[in-house]
């Protein structure tokens, strides 16, 4: 079935399409304290909650990039209701193909839970760093292993162990690229349970309201397998955090001797 239809069905109840809380996202928005006319890009922007909150809090120019036509449509509707007239644009496109107007032209570059766009956490940090000005913000949302994953769990995920690092390792990858860690917002089990539970609830409701959808058996099967894997292995194995970095300012020129 169409991948984006699957995510639309399973994320119908989500405001934020990753396992963080609305409170933690609010803390992130508050911490940034963006100046007027700041420019923000969010790769894999989902339903646009992060950018819409920034538009509500600051007079900023934002662009959100996402491949899902369902999420882009939802984001535009939410923007019209909550921040009409804000300088926010949502584009349906592959984030890897997004080209800024110029290098280092954004105040904030973020990718919260879509590092697959750039082949992983390191590639995402490389891409975002190229987009932001000195002293700019580079923000990623990324899974990490809390303990050694079982082979059975990796098979369900369809990913090798190397796909994710550790929490400390995710931070080190940023520091190796000349970024200073400012803060982390680490998801707890309540955040994960809410994220997963909303997927299960949305699937049950969709099954009841769309019993004749030919894709329904596939949706129910996949969500059932993922639920069992989460409860058996994932809840204790996989963490998630938002990593807030700042690009270092250029070093002053050396004094002539």
What features would you describe in this structure?
The chain contains nine helices and seven strands; from the N terminus they run ααβαβαββαβααβααβ. α2 (22-32) crosses α3 and α8 packs antiparallel against α9. It has a single domain (3-247), classed as Rossmann fold. The radius of gyration is 19 Å and the shape is globular. A seven-stranded mixed beta sheet has the order 3-2-1-4-5-7-6, with helices on both faces. The mean pLDDT is 95. The chain has helices at 3-10, 22-32, 49-57, 69-82, 121-131, 151-157, 167-175, 189-209, 216-237; strands spanning 39-43, 61-66, 88-92, 106-112, 132-145, 179-186, 238-247.
What is the CA-CA span between the terminal residues? 68 Å
Task: Provide the spatial order of strands within the biggest beta sheet.
Answer: 3-2-1-4-5-7-6
> Percent of residues in beta strands?
15-25%
Number of domains: 1
Radius of gyration: 19 Å
The structural class is alpha/beta
CATH superfamily: Vaccinia Virus protein VP39
**Biggest pleated sheet:** 7 strands, mixed
Name a few traits of the molecule:
seven-stranded mixed sheet, alpha/beta, single chain, Rossmann fold, 7 strands, 9 helices
């Amino acid at each position: 079935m169409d991948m984006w239809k699957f995510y639309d069905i399973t994320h119908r109840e989500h405001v934020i399409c990753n396992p963080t809380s609305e409170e933690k996202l609010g803390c992130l928005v508050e911490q940034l304290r963006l100046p007027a006319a700041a420019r923000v890009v969010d790769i894999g922007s989902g339903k646009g909650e992060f950018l819409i909150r920034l538009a509500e809090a600051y007079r900023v120019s934002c662009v959100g990039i996402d491949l899902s036509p369902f999420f882009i449509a939802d984001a535009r509707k939410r923007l019209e209701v909550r921040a009409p007239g804000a300088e926010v644009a949502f584009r349906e496109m592959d984030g890897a193909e997004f080209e800024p107007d110029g290098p280092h032209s954004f105040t904030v570059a973020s990718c919260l839970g879509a590092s697959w766009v750039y082949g992983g956490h390191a590639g995402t940090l490389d891409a975002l760093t190229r987009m932001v000005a000195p002293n700019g913000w580079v923000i990623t949302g990324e899974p990490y292993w809390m303990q050694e994953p079982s082979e059975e769990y990796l098979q369900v995920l369809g990913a090798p162990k190397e796909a994710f690092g550790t929490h400390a390792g995710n931070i080190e990858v940023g520091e190796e690229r000349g970024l200073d860690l400012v803060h982390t917002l680490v998801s707890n089990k309540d955040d994960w349970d809410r994220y997963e539970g909303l997927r299960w609830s949305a699937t049950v409701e969709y099954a009841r309201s769309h019993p004749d959808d030919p894709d329904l058996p596939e949706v129910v099967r996949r969500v059932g397998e993922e639920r069992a894997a989460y409860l058996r292995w994932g809840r204790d194995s996989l963490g998630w955090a938002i990593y807030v970095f700042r690009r270092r300012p250029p070093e002053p020129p050396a004094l002539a001797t």
